[in-house]
Each structure stands twice: as C-alpha cells, then as structure tokens.
Specification:
homodimer; 361 residues; alpha+beta; six-stranded mixed beta sheet; DNA-binding
Amino acid sequence: MAISERKKKILAAVVDAYIRTAEPVGSKAIAESAGLGCSSATIRNELAELVAMGYLEQPHTSAGRVPTPMGYRMYVNELMDQQRLSIEESEDLNRRLNQKLQELDDTISDVSRLASQLTDYPAMALTTREAVTIVRFDLIYVDANTFIIVVMLSDHTVRNKLVRLPISVDEKMIRKLSTLFNANFTHIGEDAITPVLINSTERSADDTMGITAVISSFVIEVLSSSAAPSAFVSGENRLLNQPEFRDPDKAHRLMSYLSGGGHILPEGGLFPDSNEVRVLIGPENVAEELKDSSVVIASYDAGDNTRGLIGVVGPTRMDYSAVAAKLRFLADGLSRRLGGGEAPPEGMHNKLIIKGDTNNE
Amino acid sequence: MAISERKKKILAAVVDAYIRTAEPVGSKAIAESAGLGCSSATIRNELAELVAMGYLEQPHTSAGRVPTPMGYRMYVNELMDQQRLSIEESEDLNRRLNQKLQELDDTISDVSRLASQLTDYPAMALTTREAVTIVRFDLIYVDANTFIIVVMLSDHTVRNKLVRLPISVDEKMIRKLSTLFNANFTHIGEDAITPVLINSTERSADDTMGITAVISSFVIEVLSSSAAPSAFVSGENRLLNQPEFRDPDKAHRLMSYLSGGGHILPEGGLFPDSNEVRVLIGPENVAEELKDSSVVIASYDAGDNTRGLIGVVGPTRMDYSAVAAKLRFLADGLSRRLGGGEAPPEGMHNKLIIKGDTNNE
DNA sequence: GTTGGCACTCTCCCTTTACGAGTGCTAATA
DNA sequence: TATTAGCACTCGTAAAGGGAGAGTGCCAAC
C-alpha cells in the first residue's frame, strides 16, 4: 500500500516528537503541532492505519504511538529534514578539529572522543589499513650498547625503537646492518619475512650476537601492528543520559559490549562510501547487543590506503538528523586533513547523503 | 574509649559480611558466623555500643548495622586479614603482565585496563615524570621534500616525526641542522627554548625556509608532552556491577567524573611510597564526587625519575583486602619490569603495608 | 472524508495492608 | 557483673486496592 502525503507528515511528526520527549505520542499533540488542518479524530484514523502498515506501534491499548524500526527507517530515508550545521557550529567544529592535528594514531582516540562530546552519545572510531611495508630503514648508533631503529612505512608514518644490548657493537656493524636491512627488508610484507631471510641476513652481516634477530622481530611487530585495525570507543557513560538506559542492566550490557571495542569490527564490511552516512536501526544491526539500539556511521579517507570510520551508538530514538550532520562534518574534516587530495574545499557544506539497509521492506 | 577484642571481632564480622552481601548485617547472622560463643542478644549489646562509638550505623531503627567510614578505616588499619594472592593467581598475573611489555606510554592504558579487569572495579593509571630533556638529535634525509626528526630523551624513550616540506632542501642543509640542534637543543628544558635561541640557530644554519621553526616546535611539543603527566581511566562501566550504583544518576555522576581522568591528579600529592597501598575511604577523599566512594592506590617506580600510580575506585563497601593485594602485586610487577634496580626479586610476595589517613580519629 | 462525542482501557501513582527481619528492653540466670 | 531468653515494638518492603488522567476506538452526524 502506498503511503499518502498526509501519512508521511504524521509519521514525521510522531518521530520528531518521540525523539524529543521519549514518550508515546498522542493524536491530540500531533493535531496541534503538525500544521495539517484536521482534528485529532482524523489523526487517530491515520495513526491506526500507520500501525497496521507497520510504521508505528502502541506500547499498550490506550497509549500513544511509538515508531517501529521500520518507521524510523522511513523517517531516515525520506522524511527527516536533512539538518545542516549552523555557521557557528561548523566554525566551532573546525576549531576543535584543528587543535587535534597530529599523527593518525594519536588522533583516533581524539576522534572518537570528539564525536562523543559532539553528539552526546557514545562514539567509536576505527581505522583499517591496507598492508603496509617498510620503505626505509635507518639504524642510529648511540653508543657501544645502544642503537635506535627507525623505519619509515609506506603510509608515511615512522616508527622507532631503542635497543639496548648486553654486549658491545661498533658503529661499522650498525652501518652494515642498516644497509642490509634496507636492501632485504623493505617493500615486503610480513609473510615474506621468513627464518630463511633472517638467517641469510645474519650471515651476510657476520652477526654472531643476535642483533639481526632483534631488529627482525621489531620489523615483524611493526608490520603486524600496522596491519591490525585499531579501534577506540569513548563516552560510554553518556548512554546513561538516555532514558531508555535507565535500567542499569540494560545499560551495563551495552556498555560492556562497547568497551570490548573490537567487536564492532565484523560489521566493518559495511563501510559507507565517503560522503555517505549510514544509519543502522535496531534489528538491522548484526550484533545481538545492538538489536534495540541504533548506530550511525560515517567513514573518512585517512590517506595512504587507510580508511577510518566514526560511529555513534544510541537508542533507536536517536536524533538521526543532528547526529548524521555532525558525523558527516567530522568525517569531511578528517578526510580533508588526513586524506588524499580530492577532498572537498574547506568550509563547503556537503550535501548529506544518507543511506541504509533499504532492502528489508 | 578503648575497643575490646570482642568488639573488634564483631566489627570485622560486620564489615566482612557487608562487603559480601551489601545488606545491613543483623545480630543473629554475626552470632552464627563469627565463632565467638555468645548469643545474638550479647551481640546486640555490643553492636549498640559500636554504634555509639561511631564505627557502625543503622539505616533505620529496626535494621541491621552498616559500617561507617570510621568503621571501614578501623577494619582496613587493624582488622582485615591481609590477603595474599594464591600461587595460581600470582602466576596468572605474571603471565598477563609479561605480555604487556612495551614502552611505558603504551603500557599506561594497559595497566589501567589490567587493574580494572583484575579487580572488577574501574581503575585508573597515571604517571608523572620529572622534566625530561633531549639527549640526542638526528635528522634523517629522505628526499628533497622530506626528512625525519628523531630525538632521544633523557628517559630513554625515542620520539620521531616525519616532516614534509613545500620546498626543497638538500642533504647538506639537513646535516647542518642536525649538528646545530645537537649542539644547541640538547640537555635543556622547555623553558630554555626561547625565540632568541631559535632565531640564532636559524641564522647559523642559513635557513631561510623556516625549517628551524618546524623542528623547534616539534622539540617544544615533545618536551611539553613528556612533562605533562598522563592519565588513563578504564572499566568505568564496571561500576554498574555494584548494587550501590544501581541508581543511574549516581552512577553517571561518578562515571563522568572518572572519564574526565585528569581530576584525579590534584590528589597526586599523596603518592604512596612504593610497597605501601593507600586506602581512601569515603569522606577522606578530597574530590566531592568521591565522598561516598573509596579509592585504593598503589604506586610503582617506572624508572628514569618517573613514578606511576594505579588506583581503583569502588563503593565504600569494597573488598579492600583483595583489591589491595592485587594492586600491590601489579605495582611490584611494574616496578620490577620498568623501574630501577632495587626492586624485589621476581616471585617474592611482599609484605603488604597498608596505610591511610589515620589522623582523623 | 472529516468531525465531535463518549464509553472504555490502560498505566501511573497514591494509599492501605500485611509481613518479617531486627531491634531494645526487661527479667531471669550463671 | 556479664550473659541470655523472651517479647513487644518499629520500620521498610512488597503486594493489593483504588482513583485519576491520558488516549484510544467507534459511532453517528456533517
């Protein structure tokens, strides 16, 4: 059955009111607020039909209406006025973002904290990197027992480690090792670092003291930790702001889930395109713990084959419009700062494109 | 008035039972549990006196007794059996600790996470460092637009930064700058880095492209971030396990306080000595938000003029004995791994020394 | 198709009641 | 003098009752 224009308006009014008040919405309130010139009785008829169509439900017979996940979905896809940030807001955001400019690895926790502060919901941030390789190797001789390993990675980050040896090495040996590692260990993946390679390098260097092994294990550590996606969740406690989480058990369940950050990853398959904000409403979420919460995610381009994701978790009664706008802004800002060239110019407000699972209706 | 032996036993029994059950303790329960051969009526008389003395209180006339902060204090100082960890527990702890061996800066979050997991309370970890200086400077030339700054600090950590320039530099310039910075910027504090120094270095290097400024600002960033104590709180959500935080508002208040981590610092003044675990009970805490919670803290020696602190927050009805033992173990383990030489040998169980504000009675 | 009216059905909140755990006191006992 | 048994009393909690109010569904009129 097609949904009439008036039904849409009424549905939107219900969702809007429910988002604001967290209480079932009655026909009278709608008649007064939404500017369609008809009485509460008419609204009641329409509401009954919206319930029959599955967009709304009643907690019990004589209560007002509450949107179903399907109702929210309709609202998100078609009805909500796609909120833009005001000039002041976006300036404020820009300022805060500019303060955070550091390496991406520091930023990921900041990003999630920022998203959480901004939206007043718990937020998570994560990045997945494509496999990196080492592009450059330097060993810095400090003293007879100490040297520093510095490696530059294909994603233009730099890692270092201070090595202290129980025995003495001379500067020549360090230089030799540096040359060898530059020749043998750059531009290869973690799986190419075999015992065979390590042994042959050790022999070439005349290294009888196991220095090669130390350096090799650092290489492996760097390559494997860079490949692993990192996640960060913050502001879990903001859940308690929401009336639907006044039940400590419910709140606790979700918070524990969120604290265990990594679990969000499996859903990483559905990375939204840049410029798109994805909304997952209640049962649309894969994770059992999220079945009655909603998640809004946006992704950003962190440059060098790295994509980042920022997400916000809240009750299904979430201010989708505001949250989506803020996330979009944040993601854009991050893309612009961290990412490749083709990011949109500073200050431009992108048209918001919001998508989600539309195939379940 | 002096407190008799029997009163002590009864008080201990009340605290023990209350820690276990979170419910006011009645005379009958004590008569049965504590092995002193007397009836509940006798216990009642004693209880009445303990109330008069301020060690216990009654929520209302016909309820059991609950320890007051003063009661807990007595318990912690004199009564509780100072729990040792079982062999299995300490082996498990050792294993987990060994896995976490990395740089201190990575570890601080791990430490707090570990402490939280271990105790099932929210935990925080923080370190204060003495001012560090740079002891060694290296600039690595990568290509005409790129070089890497590597600095080694007096605390034996190494920091690096990749610098990309809009203009070209040659290798000679980089070498010159490296020498100059090594000469002028090592072994000095942040406040010694004045515009005058930067300008003179810039002139000496014939640097017309502002590279000196870039490097200088990195130096300042490193020195200031190393001086700033860093804090980390985790497991806030475990608060919700405790029945006293079933009230979402109460839980939220404390959790927000904890999330804002830094606030704990002002109390840093009371760093416990190593080998001592400090317990702060309810009103003994300075922070308003902690007035009806308890904090257990231990400190460890992280080497190089750095002291770390691990703390656990919970309701006043906290299992002080178990928590103190675990924190002591953790702190010892960390001192041994990170710290100076005179740490106790591996595997030894230290005598627990527990102290606190005893001057308020 | 829309509206006013009205009986009906819920939940929410307040009060009442009953119950039981635990006390305080007193008088008896060792 | 310290301990104990007994008993009346207190108070909080949980279950049960009882409006009040918000909101519905339906019907008959427009």
